[in-house]
UniProtKB/TrEMBL annotation:
Main location: membrane
Species per Swiss-Prot/TrEMBL record: Planococcus halotolerans
Annotated localization: Cell inner membrane; Cell membrane
GO cellular component: plasma membrane
SUPFAM superfamilies assigned: MetI-like
Name of the protein: ABC transporter permease
């Protein structure tokens, strides 16, 4: 069947390209430009100096990428471990002080980052957690955990307790009920929260700079001096590298989820060891 493109679809596609494609094209041109002044539309000369420095000239580039990914992965795993029981408690149980617990949990979304990170910094100074990867990981939980909890809460709101009761009647214990009934239903929410957690953690500059005190070098820490130092070519190359790193991290997570759904059937309860 021949697909018909309406003028509205064409206009929307062009607008999408303008908002997403043009900034990347501008960064790519800037990364290979040796002289590009306003209002010249295209650079007058080109050079791969910036890419040679970023990929081969600076030994800190690949180390900072590894550190960024390590911190993002650890933060995401901790977020999942904390968010699942927290969301379960907030959705399914009524207890005194519930509103206060929710207010504290979601406060980092409202409180300005500088205010929050200064309080964290003073606490971590006394605990000896500054200038360490552990300190940066714990600090990254503040802006990422609320989004993970909120995403998992949405999944819990659509999960009927009757499904777990049926699994219990079939003889499934707590672990099997969670693995075969609850987890498949929570997985879309966990994936959404993990995506936000990875992106927010990878893009953190202020928290990493203050808590890490320059000793924990991630890609944003490496990028910002070139933005303020007046070398737009190197800054553009690092920006493209940062965007590629974030996209690859999300694609890797998507591949893991697809692999999970290929090997598991969330719609069918398969309780091992249960005799009918």
């Amino acid at each position: 069947m021949k697909q018909v493109f309406s003028p509205l679809k064409i206009i929307l596609s062009l607008l999408l390209f303008l908002f997403i494609g043009i900034p990347f094209i501008a960064l790519l041109l800037s990364s290979v430009a040796t002289g590009w002044q306003w209002p010249v539309l295209f650079p007058e000369s080109y050079s791969f100096r910036a890419w040679e420095y970023v990929l081969f000239g600076s030994s800190r580039t690949w180390q900072s990428i590894g550190t960024s990914l390590l911190i993002a992965v650890i933060v995401t795993v901790i977020n999942v471990l904390l968010a699942v029981p927290a969301a379960n408690a907030l959705v399914r149980f009524q207890f005194k002080g519930k509103w206060f617990a929710e207010a504290i949990l979601f406060a980092p979304i409202i409180i300005p980052p500088f205010v929050a990170v200064m309080g964290i910094h003073l606490t971590f100074l006394r605990l000896g957690l500054t200038e360490t990867i552990l300190g940066v990981v714990l600090a990254h939980l503040s802006p990422t955990l609320p989004y993970m909890v909120r995403a998992v809460m949405i999944s819990y709101n659509t999960l009927s307790v009757d499904w777990e009761n049926q699994a219990r009647m079939l003889g499934a214990g707590p672990f099997l009920r969670f693995y075969y009934v609850v987890l498949p239903h929570l997985l879309p929410g966990i994936a959404a929260g993990a995506s936000l957690s990875i992106l927010i953690s990878l893009s953190q500059y202020l928290i990493t700079f203050i808590i890490g005190s320059g000793q924990v070098v991630t890609l944003p820490i490496l990028l910002f001096p070139f933005i303020s130092g007046g070398d737009p070519a190197v800054a553009s190359a690092y920006s493209l590298l940062f965007a590629g790193m974030a996209i690859l991290a999300l694609l890797a997570m998507d591949a893991v989820l697809k692999k999970y759904y290929q090997t598991k059937n969330p719609s069918v309860l398969k309780v091992k060891g249960v005799k009918r």
